[in-house]
Amino acid sequence: GEAVPLIEQSGAGMLAQTKEEWVSALEKLLRDDASRAEMGEKAQESAHDQYSYDAVVPKICRLLTSLRKS
């Protein structure tokens, strides 16, 4: 899905595949307030960059312009 590339590019989360990796990631988040806060900030930044009005409207305008030209 799209979650893996978004997480990898933004640094807004941790990826885990096994039970041990999930436990380790969750333990780190529970212990490390700074990492948790940084991931939260990166997640907000990424969401704004990808999905805010300012990010989406120009894409829609370009799409509509290209459809009008075809």
Write the layout of secondary structure elements.
Elements: H1 3-10, H2 19-31, H3 33-51, H4 53-69
Helix pairs in contact: 3-4
Written overview of the protein:
With 70 residues, this protein is mainly α. The chain is 81% helix and 0% strand. It contains four helices and no strands. It has helices at residues 3-10, 19-31, 33-51, 53-69. The two termini are 31 Å apart. The model has no long low-confidence stretch (mean pLDDT 93).
Using only CA atoms, what is the Rg? 17 Å
**Shape, principal axes of CA atoms:** elongated
Q: Ends: how far apart?
A: 31 Å
Residue windows where pLDDT falls under 50 for at least 5 positions: none
The major beta sheet can be summarized as: none
As a percent range, the share of strand residues is under 5%
Mean pLDDT: 93
Structural class from helices and strands?
A: mainly alpha
Total beta strand runs: 0
What's a quick, concise take on this entry?
With 70 residues, the chain is mainly alpha-helical. Helix content is 81%, strand content 0%. Helix 3 (33-51) runs parallel beside helix 4 (53-69).
What key phrases describe this protein's structure?
70 residues; mainly alpha; 4 helices
